[in-house]
């Protein structure tokens, strides 16, 4: 079987905050269409790695290649426009806006390459509105269409966060702890959702819940103290000695 | 009835009725300053950029019109267009330098640029008239309209006022408006969706500058004189007060703020030489009792009425 194409690659990525090296020479390849989980204890540098890949943070060393193109010096919105969508660990939905408006903004970006229009009422952009409703329907969020994000439960905000990310129609999806703070039932819902979109996107996911990671991932990378300590299939990782000591404390 | 149409009808009604109930010169100043206040609301209320340098664009429009009509020897419409384009260009240049700064730093930079503009005008007195301002401005006729007639000039300004309202309201409700509102809350998220937040903010800053320039231009035509105050930081502060008094949630708020500001300024100055003190008390009163500005009064009344109807229904 042919080797799958690498869509995103980190080469010796490094980030320092003062004297602390938070991401320390991380090299990783993300093949197309696979679900790649990143595991590691708190402070391992996982979220910082995401922030480097999306250029939320400037890179101190190393390179990022997106489909072979060097994107290390681009700005966050330019990375996004190249098909990288991301959800945040701390829910970053726009609390003062409705579900419709939150998803609409993402859909509109996917529909329009240029500057946002400045005449027609945003609701009267019918094609975008239609796609917005589709995304809300797919995630079972129609009942919340006109509710303000601030007015719903945390679990529903997490789902909105994913809906917004999907609505940008990305090729690569970076999910930062999609189930954090969710009840068991809610995280099962998110897990099923991720399973349902698996294969349509290249998914890179930071996740703490071991059952979620082991059940749905194709590849797993474990980080500790800014470095990659192991990479492999879920089965390989669960038996890796270095991982067991760093992550499970065994 | 559609809410948009209702608001538009109210704005048109205000423009028509105002000169019948208050002196036409005051009504005229109100609608001109209201354009300035709406322009300022686009940056402060919609985009959340605390600009304390709006008078720089108002003043640029004022001086460009004054100069075009006197030394430039241009006719009226080109003078207004030059004011709009010049103020927008100035906003583009200033904005390009400062838009990446946020919050307090952005505010201080707008203030600093405003002061610089003021001193340029003050020192360059050969062209601007310095402290004395620029006099000798005439309203040349436009397409057979004699703008020296107070009613005709008022109508001319009223048309531009309503047009400014419609345009700025549409921008507020447009995709750009929603992007600005969202970026005010979470710029990082907007960037991760692929929006150039600084690009959108710069666009808003320039559009605001353009309308501030139009207001400055009409102000000069109204008084046939360019006072140096038109570009001073006090003017920048005043327009922010108008927006706060009126309310930022819609473009009707700043119109109400401008009306109340201009009217109260006249009233208080008749009552007491230290009128600014009374004015300060009034602003404190509004901020403490009516968060959201005077427009909030209407919303509260509407809510009470709705509740009443629900009760009776």
Description:
- The complex is a heterodimer of chains A (250) and B (313).
- Chain A is α/β, with parallel strands linked by helices and 250 residues long.
- Chain A has two domains: 1-83 and 175-183 and 199-250, P-loop containing nucleotide triphosphate hydrolases (Rossmann fold, 3-Layer(aba) Sandwich); 93-169, no CATH class.
- Chain A contains nine helices and ten strands.
- Chain A has helices spanning 46-53, 76-81, 99-111, 126-138, 154-167, 184-197, 210-216, 234-239, 241-247, and strands at residues 6-17, 20-31, 35-39, 61-66, 69-70, 84-87, 172-176, 202-206, 219-224, 227-232.
- A six-stranded mixed beta sheet of chain A has the order 6-7-8-3-9-10, sandwiched between helices. In chain A, strands 2-1-4-5 form a four-stranded antiparallel beta sheet, covered by helices on one side.
- In chain A, a hairpin with a 2-residue loop joins strand 4 and strand 5 (69-70).
- Chain A is globular, with a radius of gyration of 18 Å.
- Chain B has helices at 3-21, 24-46, 55-69, 76-98, 103-123, 125-128, 150-173, 175-185, 187-192, 197-223, 233-246, 252-271, 275-289, 295-312.
- Chain B has one domain.
- Chain B is mainly alpha-helical and 313 residues long.
- The mean pLDDT of chain B is 92.
- Chain B contains 14 helices and no strands.
- The interface between A and B is medium-sized, with 35 and 27 residues.
């Amino acid at each position: 079987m042919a080797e799958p194409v690498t869509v995103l690659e980190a080469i010796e990525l490094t980030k320092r905050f003062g004297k602390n090296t938070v991401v320390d020479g991380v090299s990783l390849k993300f093949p197309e269409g696979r679900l790649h989980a990143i595991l590691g204890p708190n402070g391992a540098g996982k979220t910082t790695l995401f922030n480097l890949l999306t250029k939320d943070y400037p890179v101190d060393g190393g390179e990022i290649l997106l489909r072979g193109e060097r994107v290390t010096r681009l700005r966050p919105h330019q990375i996004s426009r190249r098909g990288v969508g991301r959800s945040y660990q701390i829910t970053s939905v726009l609390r003062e806006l409705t579900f419709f408006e939150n998803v609409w903004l993402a859909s509109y970006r996917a529909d329009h390459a240029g500057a946002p229009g400045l005449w027609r009422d945003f609701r009267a952009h019918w094609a975008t509105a239609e796609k917005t409703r589709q995304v809300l329907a797919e995630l079972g969020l129609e009942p919340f269409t006109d509710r303000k994000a601030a007015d719903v439960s945390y679990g529903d905000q997490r789902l909105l966060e994913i809906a917004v990310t999907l609505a940008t129609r990305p090729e690569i999806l970076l999910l930062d702890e999609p189930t954090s703070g969710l009840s068991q039932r809610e995280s099962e819902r998110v897990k099923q959702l991720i399973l349902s979109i698996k294969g349509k996107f290249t998914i890179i996911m930071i996740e703490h819940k071991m059952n979620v990671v082991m059940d749905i991932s194709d590849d797993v990378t474990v980080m500790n103290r800014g470095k990659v300590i192991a990479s492999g299939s879920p089965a390989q990782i669960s038996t890796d000695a270095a991982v067991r000591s760093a992550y499970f404390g065994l | 009835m559609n809410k948009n149409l209702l608001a538009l009808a109210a704005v048109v009604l205000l423009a028509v009725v105002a000169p019948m109930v208050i002196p036409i010169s005051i009504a005229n100043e109100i609608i001109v300053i209201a354009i300035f206040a709406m322009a300022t609301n686009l940056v402060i209320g919609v985009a959340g950029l605390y600009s304390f340098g709006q008078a720089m664009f108002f003043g640029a429009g004022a001086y460009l019109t004054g100069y075009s009509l006197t030394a430039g020897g241009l006719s009226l419409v080109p003078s207004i267009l030059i004011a709009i384009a010049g103020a927008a260009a100035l906003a583009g240049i200033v904005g390009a330098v400062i838009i990446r700064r946020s919050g307090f730093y952005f505010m201080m930079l707008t203030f600093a640029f405003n002061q610089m503009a003021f001193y340029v005008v003050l020192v360059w007195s050969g062209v601007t008239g310095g402290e004395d301002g620029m006099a000798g401005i005439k309203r040349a006729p436009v397409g057979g309209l004699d703008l020296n007639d107070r009613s005709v000039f008022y109508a001319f300004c009223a048309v531009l006022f309503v047009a400014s309202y419609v345009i700025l309201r549409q921008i507020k409700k447009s995709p750009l408006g929603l992007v600005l509102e969202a970026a005010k809350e979470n710029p990082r998220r907007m960037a991760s969706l692929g929006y150039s937040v600084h690009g959108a903010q710069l666009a808003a800053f320039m559009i605001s500058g353009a309308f501030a320039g139009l207001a400055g231009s009409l102000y000069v035509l109204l008084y046939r004189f360019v006072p140096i105050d038109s570009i001073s930081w006090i003017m920048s502060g005043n327009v922010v007060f108008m927006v706060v008094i009126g309310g930022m949630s819609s473009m009707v708020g700043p119109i109400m703020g401008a009306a109340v500001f201009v009217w109260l300024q006249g009233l208080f100055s008749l009552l007491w030489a230290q009128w600014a003190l009374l004015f300060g008390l009034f602003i404190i009163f509004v901020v403490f009792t009516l968060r959201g500005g005077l427009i909030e009064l209407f919303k509260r009344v509407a809510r009470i009425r709705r509740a009443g109807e629900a009760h009776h229904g």
